[in-house]
UniProtKB/TrEMBL annotation:
Record-level GO BP terms: oligosaccharide catabolic process
Reactions listed under catalytic activity: Endohydrolysis of (1->4)-alpha-D-glucosidic linkages in polysaccharides containing three or more (1->4)-alpha-linked D-glucose units
EC number: 3.2.1.1
InterPro entries: Alpha_amylase, GH, GH13_cat_dom, Glyco_hydro_b, O16G_dom_2
GO molecular function terms listed in the Swiss-Prot or TrEMBL record: alpha-amylase activity; cation binding
Protein name as catalogued: Alpha-amylase
Pfam families (alphabetical): Alpha-amylase (PF00128)
Similarity comment: Belongs to the glycosyl hydrolase 13 family.
Lineage: Bacteria, Bacillati, Bacillota, Clostridia, Lachnospirales
Transmembrane segments: none
Region forming the signal peptide: none
Origin species: Candidatus Eisenbergiella pullistercoris
Start and end residues of each Glycosyl hydrolase family 13 catalytic domain: 13-419
Coiled coil (UniProt feature): none
SUPFAM superfamilies from the UniProt entry: (Trans)glycosidases (SSF51445), Glycosyl hydrolase domain (SSF51011)
Amino acid sequence: MKKQWWHRTVGYQIYPKSFQDTNGDGIGDLQGVIRRLDKIAALGANVIWLCPVFPSPMVDNGYDVSDYMDIDPCFGSMEDMKELIAKAKEKGIRILMDLVANHSSDQHEWFQKALRDPYGKYGNYYVFREGRAGGPPNNWRSIFGGSAWEKVPGRENLYYLHLFTKQQPDLNWENPELREEICRIIREWMELGLGGFRLDAISHLKKNYDYEDLPADGPDGLCLAFDHINNVKGLSDFLLELKEKAFAPSDALTIGEYDNMKPEDVEAVIGENGSFSSVFDFSHTHHNVYYPEWNGDTLGMFNDYRDRLFEAQKVVDGRGLLCNFLENHDKNRCIDRFLAKEDRNPHSIRMLPVTNFFLPGIVFLYQGQEIGMRDFPKKSMDEYVDAPTHAEYEEFLKKGLTPEEALFRINSNSREHSRTPMQWDGSENAGFTTGTPWFAVNPNYTWLNYEAQEKDPDSLLHFYRKLVSVRRRPDLEETFIYGRLIPRLQDRSGILAYERRDERNRILVVTSALSEEMRLPLAEADATEALMNESELLLDNYETAPLFEKGELTLRPWECLVIRLGGKERGTD
Ligand code: GLC
Ligand code: CA
C-alpha cells in the first residue's frame, strides 16, 4: 500500500450543535470547538470531522444545506471557520467538513428557483417527475418514512424526489452542470486549508430511474427500494469525477458514508485508485443488545459482532483501509448499545473500544465517547426532537407495538441519545452553555463529566488517551496501519482476539466479553511462553498484571490486553 498522510488518522467527530456553546444561545458553535481544541489534542486525535455547519433551516440539524459556501450564523462566521482551521493546524489537527451532496435543503436558492420553473435550468438540478394515476410517480419509500415523493405546490401532477425528509430534495447527479457546481464548491473549501471531507449519504447519488412500482414492504403499499437508490451501477463514474476534479488536486482525505460495499467493489471504492480514501465500516451498526434478536444477550451479540468485523476485514484484505468506529451522531452510545445493563462495569466499558481500535484501518472517536457518555432515555416521545426518531416511533405503532413497547424501542435505539450536550463539568448544564440548551443535558452530568475524569488518573478518559497513544506510538504505528491481521481464538465464545504483525512487531490484542474467568492455552494464539515472558504490556483494563503462566493465560472478566510479544520470534512474518 502506497503511504499517505491520512493513513495515520486518529479522528474525532464533533456534532457542533451539542459540543460547546460560547455565546449563551444554547447552541454549540465554532468558537466552542476552538475553545476545546486543547482537549482534542490531549486525546491525541489528529483529524476532526465536523458535522455540517453550513447555513441550514436545521430540519435535520444541518444535513439540509441552504448555502454550501457559508457558515450558519448559529455556528459563527467564515472568519471563525478560518480561525478554527488555522488553530487546529497549529496543534497538528486537520479539519474535515461534511459534504451533504445527495440533497440540499428545500430552502436552497437552487430549489426555490426550481420550484418556480421546474422545466428550467434549476429544475434540472433536482428530480421532478409527473405523477401516475393520481398519485406519486412510483411507490418508493423515503429512508425517513413515508413516500419518497412530494407534490410540488401549485402544480397539477408534479412531484419531486426526496430520499430523506421532504425538506431535503435530492439533487440530480445526472446533470453535468450540477456535478460541476459541487466540484467547484469543494475546491473552494479545500483552498481554505481543509484536510478533506466526510461524504454524507454518498452511495445514494445514483438512482435507478426505471420508475416501476415495486412489491410493497409494508401495509402502506410503499417499498424501501434500496437496490434502486443505493450503490446503483454507474455510481462510481460520479465518484471518480468528484475525486479527480475536486479532491485529488489537494490530496484530500475523503471518507464515504457508503453502506453495503460489495466485495467485488472494494478495489474501485477504497483501493489505491478508488473513489475514496476510506469508507466507514458499518458492520456493527446493526447490533444493539436490546434489539429483539439479542434481547439483552451481550455474549451472543458480541460473538456476532466479532464475526462481522473479521468478515469485513477479510473482504477488504489489505487492498484499502476501512474507517473503524463505535459511535457517531446516528447511533446511540456504545455502552448502552453493546452491553446489557448488568454487563456494564469499569472493565467492560474499557474493553469495548479495544475490540476494533487496533484493526487495520483508520479510527474515529465521537464526542463524549472518551468519557463514556450514556443514553438519556425519555419518559415521553415529546422529549425527542428528531423527525426521523418520531417517524420510527410511528412505524413501530403501525407494526402493532403498544406505545410503551414503541417508546422502549426508541429509548434503546434513538440516534438522539448521542446528541445530548457534551458534559464538560459539574456546573449547571454541564458547562455546555450558560443559556438554555437546545436539547436536554443528561442529568448524570453531575458525576459523569470531563473535568472530573481529567482529575482522576484511573478514569475512562485517561484510558482513551492511553489507547490513542499506544496506537500512535512511533515504533508501533506502522504495524497497526500496515501490519498483517491474523484473527485469533475465533471459535472461543466471548473472545475477540487478533494479532497485528509486520517485520518490526507482533502485537496481540485480546478482549473478553465473558463475565467469568477464562483459561486460554497460549499455543492457541500462537504465543509461546518465551514470547510472553519477554513481552511488553501496552494496554490493560486491570490494575494488576495479566495472569499468564505455564503456557496459559487466564483472562479475567471483561479483560482486554494489548501485548507486544517479545523474544526472537518477533520479526518473522
Ligand atoms: C446521513 C447523516 C444523517 C442524516 C442523513 C441525511 O445518514 O449521517 O445524520 O440525517 O444522512 O442527510
Ligand atoms: Ca452558540
